[in-house]
Design brief:
Length: 210
């Protein structure tokens, strides 16, 4: 039986967040190549994140193949393909990753912002992890953004206590944009919730960098 052969394979686009960071690598996709030479049932076998996996799928959906042949007839088969993403800004991503690993809060915040733009849940979870680490070191921009995520962009349900805590800490470090959402939250929270949030703010201490 012959294997499918690529007839047309347009290059994938870059996601804005991956391009900004200079992310590169290979996304591996599993798929069925039908008797018409069109890919279907495309699934990610090895992910890159930052929206690149979705861009890889979008590109491969446009690919066209000579179908596999058996006994002179086209047959559907499962294959995997590699979709390559390359950019001349790879040093930027490597440098930022090293700073994140070293525990630098500004690098953690920048990386988190990029991963927050990804549609993948695991990317957003990683972004929240980085944000929490940066906020924990007293970076007010990260604290304010955490407040926004817990208040305006909830993952499951709104967490008023966490939102209030991070907004208030950002205000403590000089973030004036916290005033409006804190006022809104105060009118929405129960006395018990407000008391818990204020206790968290009063007892909070920054964590040392890694």
């Amino acid at each position: 039986m012959s294997v499918p052969r690529i007839k047309w394979d347009p290059e994938p686009d870059y996601s804005p967040q991956a391009l900004r960071l200079g992310r590169q690598g290979v996304c591996v996709l599993w798929m069925i190549i039908g008797t018409d030479g069109k890919p279907r049932d495309i699934k990610v076998a090895r992910a890159l994140g930052l929206g690149l996996d979705e861009k890889a799928i979008e590109a491969v959906q446009r690919w066209r193949f000579e179908p596999a042949m058996k006994d002179g007839k086209p047959v559907a088969v499962q294959i995997n393909v590699e979709v390559n993403f390359h950019t001349d800004r790879t040093d930027r991503f490597t440098d930022l990753s090293q700073k994140v690993q070293a525990g630098e809060p500004k690098a953690q915040l920048e990386m988190a912002k990029a991963f927050l733009e990804s549609p993948r849940l695991d990317d957003q979870q990683y972004a929240m992890h980085l944000l929490t680490k940066a906020a924990g070191q007293g970076l007010r921009d990260a604290q304010f953004l955490l407040g926004e995520r817990y208040y305006r962009y909830p993952m499951a349900i709104q967490d008023y206590i966490s939102a209030y805590t991070w907004y208030a800490l950002a205000r403590r470090y000089g973030e004036k944009k916290s005033e409006a959402p804190l006022k809104e939250l105060t009118s929405k929270m129960t006395p018990e919730q407000l008391s818990e949030a204020q206790t968290r703010v009063e007892t909070w201490k920054p964590t040392p960098a890694k």
